[in-house]
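Here is one chain, start to finish.
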Amino acid sequence: MEKIKQNPIVKKLGFNRIILTLVLILMYFVFCAVVPGFFGKARILNALNYVYFLGFLSLGVTFVIATGGIDFSIGPVMFCCALISGYTFTKFGLPMGVCLVLSILIGFLFGIFNGYLVAYWTVPPFIVSMASMNIAKGLAAVYTKTQSVSWPLTDQPSGWFRNLAKAGNIPTGLIVFLVAAVICSIILNNTRFGRYILCLGSNREAVRLSGVNTKKWEMLAYTMCGLLVGIAAIFFVAVYTTVQPGYGDQYNNEAIAGCVMGGTSMAGGLASIGGTVIGVLIISLLQEGILAMGFTKDIQLIVTGLIVIVAVYADVSARRRRN
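Its structure:
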């Protein structure tokens, strides 16, 4: 096994990413063998619908977890962005482009709020994210008067934004997501911002003693997460028509599971955008496969919870071996 890991090609591609890709391929063929009709374009497109918004959530939380933090508010904040911007469109008739920018801005502001409390007020990330989750739910419910919000369909004049996710049978959302993943990978691995947040997760005190403003970079990690959550809301409503207040919690675990499964350490200091992409594809294919087999949404939640436990356990075991 060690010889395989030391192979130059394997080292370049990443052993963990290769294994995850094989798991993804194997999972697809297992579902094709078990579920009649799973081997087809329709099932793939359905699974990709989940990838678009979940992918942006996972990319965002990757930056936060890289610092050694956590954010359990990403799902409710995504719903808050979608509800407030959607209600603004239906109630006040603002142009669709303005409402989409509003969605990104709301996510961005939540990211600043979370980052400031964690970095400058030194409130534990778990507490901050739990508070933000409740604030997001409450804010969306108050603004929409607890009403669900329906976004325009494709055949309506303002429904052009749905082409961001799917133009006919072309999964344009996948292209946008992969481009965003490449940009995030460059930021994480080739910029000062990325190096500092990884160093924060590895040894925060050493970074602080070297003269780096750790608070600023930690806050920026949460801000980046909030920005991507606002974008995720756009892709969510580009796929699904109706958004209801009080939901979004389930996507927290799924986004974190995809992130950790892809090789991002819950302890911080180690992150892989490429691994996150593959992890999101696995989670999305798994969700579609479970539904295709006739199981309920409750089974999806159980499976996702087990995946989180296994992924975190694998991360802890790997860190012990490295130490």
